[in-house]
Amino acid sequence: MALQFQAALNLRSAPAIHKKALKKWNLTIRAQTATTTPEIRQDKTEQKKTLRKGNVIVTGASSGLGLATAKALAETGEWHIIMACRNFLKAERAAKSVGIAKENYTTIHLDLASLESVRQFVENFRNSNMPLDVLVCNAAVYLPTAKQPSFTAEGFELSVGTNHLGHFLLSRLLLEDLKKSDYPSKRLIIVGSITGNTNTLAGNVPPKANLGDLRGLASGLNGGNSSPMIDGGDFDGAKAHKDSKVCNMLTMQEFHRRYHEETGITFASLYPGCIATTGLFREHIPLFRLLFPPFQKYITKGYVSEEEAGKRLAQVVSDPNLTKSGVYWSWNSNSSSFENQLSKEASDAEKALKLWEISERLVGLA
Ligand SMILES: NC(=O)c1ccc[n+]([C@@H]2O[C@H](COP(=O)([O-])OP(=O)(O)OC[C@H]3O[C@@H](n4cnc5c(N)ncnc54)[C@H](OP(=O)(O)O)[C@@H]3O)[C@@H](O)[C@H]2O)c1
């Protein structure tokens, strides 16, 4: 069952139901062809303006996709990476292990499972006097085998509390810093996933993402006098993760609607592909962890290496062709980027607004 579920996650290029649309995209998005290394702005006017390195905050840069992205960006020599991580020592070791030179990164402590820590992170970052040009909300937890919910410092179910609410507060606070940046292309990127999109085969494997009418979230998501699930249902760790990814994609679009025109900031989300080897699957049963990578490599052929996925996210950070705002990026089997379509729920503007308003109340912004 678990394998079936994960196999479905990894539709090699795009789900069959999107084949027609993909054909069209391939014709219309040739200008967005992926490159093997992230390009740094080449536009002449932009080049003139870019006198300094870009500063990018990457949450969860201590492993998997975040680390691979930090490495890809550092290798261009054009970016300084702020590794926003909950385990300082692990982050330092990770940076060293992939050869990121000391002058190309700064580690600042961030535990997304604590709103207090998020606020402290923002204060520490501001005290560093570094400008902020790009924010990448990448960190996540996935608890597919948990029988009981766990909770954040403020008592929210852990997956949604970390992946959505922690990032929601972080990005709302840092929006002010992004606005101040003089960098040619300012971006706020929230990593999404195919698993939250029920318009794909993968997204249709139970338990499906479903925020319902958000009654669980509205009543605090605390598992005490409210359900630990956004839709008010019984706890399901796999669903909680998928729900949190829907929140990530809805939040990106609400940011776009509210702030793109006024600020010029590019808001984007993406599905980097299935990266079968990352720590995201650390809570899965050992047999699954053993078989999942070769299954993806040799059976579904949907395997994406951490290195390749890191280059994809680095591309969304820095590629001058990917400045369109409000977009959910994906890549086809030739590693060419295209604007993918979100599911009905993950693109529901009314739900995005409701999620925004409830979330700002929960994190203390309203
Ligand atoms: N792997 C895939 O196939 C896949 C597919 C689609 C989307 N994604 C998305 O890609 C992103 C990265 O996942 P990954 O696969 O790279 O997983 P990963 O290797 O487990 O990385 C997750 C990162 O998040 C950090 N993190 C977890 N809880 C945190 C907290 N409370 N505060 C701060 N940081 C925290 C982890 O820190 P520690 O190192 O301290 O544990 C780690 O650095 C996630 O948003 C995930 O949904 C992954």
Task: Please give a quick description of this structure.
The protein is of the alpha/beta class. The chain has helices at residues 2-9, 19-28, 44-49, 64-76, 88-97, 115-127, 158-180, 215-218, 237-263, 286-300, 306-318, 349-362, and strands at residues 54-59, 79-85, 105-109, 134-137, 187-191, 266-270, 327-331, 337-339.
What features would you describe in this structure?
The structure is a single chain. Helices cover 43% and strands 11% of the residues. The protein is an alpha/beta fold. It has an 8-stranded mixed β-sheet with strand order 3-2-1-4-5-6-7-8, with helices on both faces. Helix 6 (115-127) runs parallel beside helix 7 and helix 7 packs parallel to helix 9 (237-263). It has helices spanning 2-9, 19-28, 44-49, 64-76, 88-97, 115-127, 158-180, 215-218, 237-263, 286-300, 306-318, 349-362, and strands spanning 54-59, 79-85, 105-109, 134-137, 187-191, 266-270, 327-331, 337-339. Helix 7 (158-180) links the parallel strand 4 and strand 5 (187-191). The structure holds NADP nicotinamide-adenine-dinucleotide phosphate. NADP nicotinamide-adenine-dinucleotide phosphate binds at residues 59-60, 62-66, 85-87, 90, 110-113, 138-141, 162, 191, 193, 271-272, 274-275, 278-280.
